[in-house]
Write a sequence for this structure.
């Protein structure tokens, strides 16, 4: 029996979207000649148009065909409430962005569900820091777009950040959308691993202890393994105070002092997520509970969940040796640590299969 995707591709709409995704303009033109009323077809679940599909894939010839057939360059889909241009920008397809603009496409793009506009879609996602995306930014700026604080941070533009904050000091407190947990600019700068931006925002008056919509501080964002030590140094120099940050910098005396108060909350969880074996050992020697639960973006988890999620095999071993229970399930997804190793990242962390094996055996292993 044919699978569902195969059956769907056999329908007129399925054939149209398949041709658009493949960049087969000749095939798409022939299909639209047969089914001219389907040029306005929508693809579930988010009501993408043929133009969204072609723009995201960077198929300029298909984009030109669809514009010639009357598709509106400013048509929106229902998932993120975006134009095709948002998706072309996110993928770094400047030729498609240019063609959509020539057809009347809005290079600003206010109103998307992430509240980032086209310039934010070209800068604020992982993988956008390359020449292709920078070319998109140059184009939209030349045609009426302007940086906001998040796009300027993403591009490490100190003068632009200063300009934005000088014109509107409230920009330091601007929050991202609910999709990004209402992050503040400082959270975003930490997540993007921009130490110069972290230092600048703190110098301009950003609150180092401010929380995002899930109650997470900048220190929690610094637990990501992708965030470098210079970011942690900038946070501490700017006034951020947490035992986890002190341990990352090797300041055990400060960490010991902070562990006696609220500034040590979640330290073992954060160190486990970062994969900092030295900090984990230090905390365990001080009798930190390897089975303690702590709220991590809405899920009550143990340190083992976070170490497993990031594929930190040696930290998983340390926690298991200290008595961590691999069977504990988180409060949001009902997943054990092995589940977090397998499904907690997309794609899973390197070495996740070894971590799952260790956890399923319930032993530190060799």
């Amino acid at each position: 029996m044919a699978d569902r995707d195969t059956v769907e591709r056999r329908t007129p709409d399925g054939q149209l979207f398949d041709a658009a995704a493949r960049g087969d303009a000749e095939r798409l033109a022939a299909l639209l000649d047969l089914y001219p009323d389907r040029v306005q077809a929508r693809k579930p679940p988010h009501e993408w148009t043929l133009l969204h599909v072609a723009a995201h894939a960077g198929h300029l010839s298909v984009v030109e065909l669809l514009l010639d057939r009357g598709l509106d360059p400013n048509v929106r889909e229902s998932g993120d409430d975006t134009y095709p241009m948002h998706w072309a920008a996110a993928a770094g397809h400047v030729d498609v962005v240019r063609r959509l603009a020539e057809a009347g496409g809005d290079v600003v793009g206010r109103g998307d569900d992430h509240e980032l506009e086209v310039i934010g879609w070209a800068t604020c996602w992982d993988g956008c820091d390359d020449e292709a995306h920078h070319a998109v930014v140059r184009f939209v700026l030349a045609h009426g777009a302007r940086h906001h604080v998040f796009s300027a941070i993403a591009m490490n533009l100190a003068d632009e950040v200063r300009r934005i904050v000088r014109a509107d000091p409230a920009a330091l407190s601007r929050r991202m959308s609910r999709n990004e947990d209402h992050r503040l600019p400082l959270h975003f700068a930490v997540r993007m691993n921009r130490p110069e931006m972290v230092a600048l925002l703190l110098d301009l008056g950003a609150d180092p202890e401010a929380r995002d919509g899930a109650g997470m501080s900048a220190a929690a964002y610094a637990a990501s393994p992708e965030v470098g030590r210079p970011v942690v140094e900038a946070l501490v120099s700017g006034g951020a105070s947490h035992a986890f940050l002190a341990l990352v910098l090797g300041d055990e005396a400060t960490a010991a002092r902070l562990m006696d108060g609220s500034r040590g909350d979640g330290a073992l969880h954060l160190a486990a997520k970062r994969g900092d074996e030295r900090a984990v050992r230090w905390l365990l020697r001080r009798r930190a509970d390897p089975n303690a639960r702590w709220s991590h973006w809405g899920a009550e988890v143990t340190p083992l969940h976070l170490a497993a999620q990031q594929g930190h095999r040696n930290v998983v071993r340390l926690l298991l040796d200290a008595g961590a229970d691999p069977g504990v399930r988180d409060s949001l997804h009902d997943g054990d640590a092995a589940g977090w190793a397998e499904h907690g990242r997309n794609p899973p962390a390197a070495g996740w299969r070894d971590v799952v094996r260790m956890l399923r055996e319930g032993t530190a292993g060799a």
